[in-house]
User: Fold these one by one.
Assistant:
Number 1:
Amino acid sequence: MTGNALAPSSVIVERDLSIEMRDGIVLAADLYRPQGDGPHPTLLYRVRGSRSAAFISGLLMLNPLEAVRRGYAVLIQEVRGRAGSQARWHPFVHEREDGEDTLSWTLAQEWCDGRLGTYGTAYSAQTALALAALGRDELRAVAVLGTGADYHNGWVYTNGAFELGWNVYWAYMTLGESIERLDVDEQRKAELRGRYEQAMIEEPAVAARLPISDHPLLVECGELQYQEWLEHPDYDDYWRRIDVLADAHRIAAPMLSIVGWHDNFLKSHMDLYRAISERGPEPGRSHHRLVIGPWEHANYVSPFSTSRTGAVELGPRAACGVSRSGPMLLDWFDRWLTGLDAGPAGGVRYWQLGENEWKESAAWPPPSHERALYLHSSGGAATREGDGLLLDEPPVGALPPDSYVYDPLDPVPTLGGKTLMPTIMGAGIEDQSEIQLRKDVLCYRSPVLTEPLAIAGPLRLRLWACSSAPDTDFTAKLCDVAPGGFAANLAEGIVRARYRDSARARSAPLQPGEPTMFEIDLWDLAHTFLPGHRLLLEISSSNFPRFDRNMNTGHEPGADGAADARKAAQLVLHDQRHPSVLRLPELPGPAG
């Protein structure tokens, strides 16, 4: 049974509620509730944008009017420093305390029956996770889409590399409202507004600035988050106080987690799923529902096709958006807040790329065995026209290494992938074949497949390499090359040498020419390589502007300008003593 047989026909909307926080700051909210006597199970939705905007309130995940039809009250609140709420915007910092104060206030209202759920996407999902990390018993269910959990390694940085395109896009996107809240005269606001508008128009060039700390408009407008992030490249107390992943042992509320294979927050969702599965309390540990579609982040709100990712249209069964997420969320809350047997209570639903089919599994990853593909060449793997191979057999003897020169002033360009920087470039699946003609891109390809190869789970590359620089980056990208030559990007990863042993603690500088082992996380993937296709693994040292360019100096992020850039001579080893290997989770059965 789903839904509520006694669904109300009318909705009461109470505007401009004022909710006072423990420090006296007042946050603004709207309430949607059924007409007539309560109390009602209640959903909290704490948002960065305007609570009254149709895009925010009804398009992102859940239409509150549909929730009211199911018998819920829905409180939509603007977070501190945004829209109608008081104080200064400081992302992440106040969400746990403000969330808890809002939760306590809600429980005291006569229209709330004490059964609470929370939901959100992107930043509003972060506020929902912050609530869940409190471990409050009154919070009975959570639903999140496309968000972070460890904001150090999964939002701002990835394995030590600064998520440049996303961070620039985010900082400038939130700047418009910050300008309007400044205590300056209208002439000054108009001047700042004009510079802001020009920066948004020119954002590809803004993202390409060196040093990457060169953003005076952000500083002048008091938008200090970007600079703070550059000042804290290491995991320290700044990050720990907002780290939901570290508090997974407190998340007892059953969670519905929705993300896409090409979403820049995929890693965060998978990390959180694993953390709750390993150390979360019940009932959350056993009742974590994970849904992974073929999407990139902006798919969820595309006005044209929510089933197109980059250059590939996948059709109606792959569609996302509120028409898909809304019923999932309401069924989830019905199960955990009202006791109705509505929808699955856990498990994983995922889109198998290549086959383009939805699959179900009791847990993630589904059962698999490791398939090891070793890098081979005769020293000529540069470009897709070289002699690089991916083979099942490990190397024998002293095979010559492959070499290339990484120049930070001529980086390998980002093309699609797991990005969110829509004013800079798009995300998702794009043809990588032109990039694979660059001399600083090593390419290792498998033989043409004669039968399907299905994988599902985490992908890891163990890479043996040398560099002439004290610090540098190594990148990896896995592609599916179709018979016609279209090279579809599927998975990608990066490691900054100074964080090669841990994303949270620095390693010693590289010694020039010394063979060093790097583990590159290519995140998770479910894909079937079809007969007639090849696997192709790219190795290089940049993916720009998704990530900042490592200037090969070993200096702190944001310190180096163009004049500081140094070229690095890179060697990739794949001999018997240094076997570089891609490890894939191969599924059993006819396609595995």
Note: The radius of gyration is 24 Å.
Number 2:
Amino acid sequence: MTASLEPANSISFAIVGTGGAGAITAGSMLIEAAGKAGYYGLLTRSVGPQIRGGEAAALVRLSTKPAACMSKEFDILVAIDWKNADRFIGAMPVAEGGLVICGPAAGDPPRAIRETDCTIIECPIGELAKSVPGGRENMISAGLVAELIGMPLEEIRNVVSGKLASKGEKAVEASHGCLEIGAQTAAGFDHTCRLAAPEEGSNKRWLITGNEAVGLGALRGGVRFAAAYPITPATEVLEYLSPALASVGGALVQAEDELASINMIIGASFGGRPSITATSGPGLSLMMESLGLAAASETPIVVVDVMRVGPSTGVATKSEQSDLNIAVYGFHGDAPHVVVAPLSVSDCLFTGQWAVHMAETLQTPVIVLSDQSIGQARVLIDRPADITFMTRRKPFDADGEAYQRYAITADGVSPMSTPGQAGGQYTADGLTHTERGSPSSARSDQKEQLDKRHDKIARFNFGNHWGITEGDSARATVILTWGSLTGAAREAIDALQDEDIPVRLVSLRQISPFPEEPLKAALAGTKRLLVVEQSYSAQFYRHVRSYIDLPFEVRQLNREGPYEIGPDEIVTKIREWNDQ
């Protein structure tokens, strides 16, 4: 890769190595330093299914503008070693003319690298690290990348000092020394890939993951209790909430399994505490019976499902959108509830807060369908706007009359007492019941309560939060997607705009109840519709078709994980269609 004549507005690099080599740590430090320098960015990680060891990689994109998704190809790849790389190198293709740096002791590069028209530079990363007492290869790698892209080394030193302070002065000095040696070594290369300077006056960015953001949103929404059983890739939601809840007088309990965790939050919510749990597909499957109990007893709870590749254990560390069906249709019987999906890492904050608002207001379970690609992605973003919802359960006020917990009201939502409240006693269980809460087998009570639970959600004003529409309504070609693929669709539309191919975007945040009328309005004037989703069986497309007609030419771009659909695939699909 010859020296760039002009600095690039976006650069992508990967640091790979065996698990434990510190590749992800190096990438994390680089993106944090970039944020302090005023850049935007995105870090995703590629790891194997094992608990320890195996392959590991930090995939990083830095940009002068917000980065909606990972790049198709990487400008720089640094290999601490090539062990197990064949299993995951396909997720990080090196661009033609790109630069690959690896040591002679790392082993032979994988075939995918050797067959790429890239420049391979042998650099004795291991030997350079050994030249510093206590030195590590990942810090040499960080220094190499910093010099190649033109990032100020001082920013990285400051990050390293903060991260390693607890390990003592010697550890900090060793890492600083490795950064210097790495940078000096890269300065002697005949290749460079400079990142353009951030805009003047750029503020320091927020550095946050989707899992942290949804936890913060839940906290802002009023959640004060969480119970969960750790599961990849949702565990970080709990890791964030544990100290955060304690700081506001709340609590988190690690349950013995997923069934215990959801039953704990149902109990806590029954006791008056807004509550949440986080899981992934296998855990959501186990929670279904208790989700039905929450729906029938009208107990507000939030369940965050950070989706991964299934079925069964599947690929726990990779992303897919294949839990849509179970989230919407998995309850037995008729159990109206709400399902929403964040559209980006920053949107996880809003969606998490909105989910709590709806659960508490409607007294119903709300499922948040995040996924691994945004849940575990670490991004540099502008600070999201603060949102305030008037979240409040409809309270019970004793008025001398017998309390009817499930009274039929104009909005379908009944007053909810808390245990011990005078006059507020009622029977709470999953049986069909009367307005008073007494168990009943009468058809009239069954229908009345089914109507009530349906109507309260159907009447709720979801406002303009159902999704987003972007682009001129005169554009007859539309990309319809949902959740985390919104970022890839946005970047695809930007690229198509450069080719004078006008396309607009419609992306759903509200999955159930289905936003029929808003979506019909958003699709008005459409002639061509491309439905994009990360699902082998096209669950989203079939879900949409079950509610509305699509009276125009429709094509689909859907496939399974573990590799995510990128902007280039969407562009290719639209371009081919446009040429016909």
Note: The chain has a mean pLDDT of 93.
